[in-house]
Amino acid sequence: MGFRRLNCRVTVDTTKMSLPNALNAINNAEKTGKRQVLIRPSSKVIVKLTHSSIGEFEQVDDHRSGKVIVQLNGRINKTGVISPRYNVHLSQLEKWVVKLLPARQFGYIILTTSAGIMDHEEARRRHVSGKIIGFFY
Hints:
Helix content is 26%, strand content 33%.
């Protein structure tokens, strides 16, 4: 019988390309059953990107770039970053939903718009278009 690791934290130092590395860390922590992930440098984009599929998060100010401790609740199946960031008009949004998400009303595409960072459903409600940052489901 083997020993079970009780350490529930994964630490990731993302210096370059912070969004893909942070999402990869969240994805890997979900797959291995971790309960929380420490991501640095912190970014509002990362927290906004996974707003409904994570538990609570805590921002820690370390007088540098900051850290975010994300509590995972086991609801993320896959995350991804879209690079290059394609311009998406409101009329083209459904095409991207079909292309990136596995089923209707399952998952979110994250857009950066002139009104801020939001998911595709909120962008549809506000009638704004923008650039695709990433997706998760």
